[in-house]
Design brief:
23% strand; alpha/beta; 7-stranded mixed β-sheet; 212 residues
Length: 212
């Protein structure tokens, strides 16, 4: 712990590798995605903050009005809160010259892509698993320097594909480089998704729709 604005974990890593910003899902904690981070980029430094909202005692990143219905004003507020924390942490831990890549699942993926859409001055790379479109009308910012990997299940009732496809459209309208992965499962991270994300993180690339 430090005096930074959000409770978090930080683990030093190889300075030649990207710093991974790990964003947990609903009911999770900063340590939840450490194993995933190690799969995606072994030896990377880890910055893992905690969501500040509580829903029935479970940590979340922003409020929702019902399942799948977000409080969009709170999404904007919390995305800026996260972005401000990232700025603080980058300075505090001396990461200004390091590549920073967000990695999030479900609610964490949603706050990550919201931050990409709203604060490209802070976060320009995001691997999002089971994400939805977090804000209906994001500002028309130039995201030409932004890369996003999106993995979603075709049978996911919690993150339906139409919302994810809307997110793809909003990102591409703003010139972001978007890589899309689809799997036949539900609200989960598959082994194939991890492999695709690892490849994306290490080599880049884009494509939508994904190959058959």
């Amino acid at each position: 712990m430090t005096s930074l604005s959000l409770e978090h974990l930080y683990e030093q890593g190889d300075p030649a590798k990207p710093v991974l910003l790990l964003l947990h899902g609903t009911g999770g904690s900063p340590s939840d995605l450490i194993g995933l981070g190690a799969e995606l980029s072994p030896g990377s430094a880890i910055l893992a903050p905690a969501g500040q909202v509580r829903e029935n005692g479970m940590p979340r990143w922003f409020r929702r009005l019902s399942e799948g219905v977000f409080d969009h004003e709170d999404v904007v507020f919390r995305a800026n809160e996260l972005a401000d924390f990232i700025v603080q942490a980058v300075k505090h831990y001396g990461l200004a010259d390091r590549r920073l890549v967000g990695v999030g699942f479900s609610n964490g993926a949603n706050i990550g892509v919201a931050t990409v859409l709203l604060r490209p001055d802070v976060l320009t790379e995001m691997a999002a698993f089971a994400a939805m479109s977090p804000v209906p009308s994001p500002p028309a910012l130039d995201l030409s320097g932004t890369r996003v990997f999106l993995s979603n299940g075709t049978r996911d009732p919690m993150a339906p594909l139409p919302s994810n496809e809307e997110l793809v459209a909003r990102l591409r309208e703003r010139s972001a480089d978007v890589t899309v992965h689809r799997h036949q499962g539900g609200h989960q991270i598959t082994l194939e998704a991890v492999e695709k994300a690892r490849r994306w993180l290490s080599t880049g690339g884009s494509g939508y729709p994904p190959p058959a």
